[in-house]
Specification:
There is one protein chain. Helix content is 83%, strand content 0%. Helix 1 packs antiparallel against helix 3 and helix 3 (47-63) crosses helix 4. It has one domain (2-117). The protein is globular. The protein has 122 residues and is mostly helical. The relative contact order is 0.16.
């Protein structure tokens, strides 16, 4: 059990850091984010809402105030990472690695969260 908790917190910490750095980059370096989103075929008006959603997802996962909200956060991030990976594959820009890493971190965090804290109840 102790090993599982360590794995959960390390993986969830790395996932949270990745999400917060990504959201921070969207706010601090909007021009670069706009260029990247345009290259991938996404509209630039989703940059700020996506950054806010990432921050809120981290809060939902770490605070565990609502298991249903936490589940929605995990689901939303899963779709975001998979679609980001698909966009990078279609764009053939060779930058799919971060999406794969993020998806692995997310699935590992979700697995150990369910194992340690139980499935969603409310």
């Amino acid at each position: 059990m102790k090993t599982q908790k360590i794995i959960y917190w390390v993986v969830t910490g790395l996932l949270s850091a990745l999400l917060l750095m990504s959201a921070g980059m969207y706010f601090v370096n909007y021009a670069q984010a706009s260029t990247n989103f345009t290259k991938l075929g996404y509209p630039v008006y989703i940059i700020y809402p996506l950054a806010i959603a990432k921050i809120l997802a981290v809060v939902a996962i770490l605070t565990k105030m609502s298991t249903k909200l936490k589940e929605w956060a995990y689901a939303g991030l899963f779709f975001e990472f998979v679609l980001a990976g698909a966009a990078h594959i279609v764009a053939k820009d060779g930058e799919v690695g971060f999406a794969i890493i993020a998806t692995i971190l997310l699935l590992t965090s979700y697995y150990f969260d369910s194992k340690l804290f139980g499935p969603a109840r409310t």
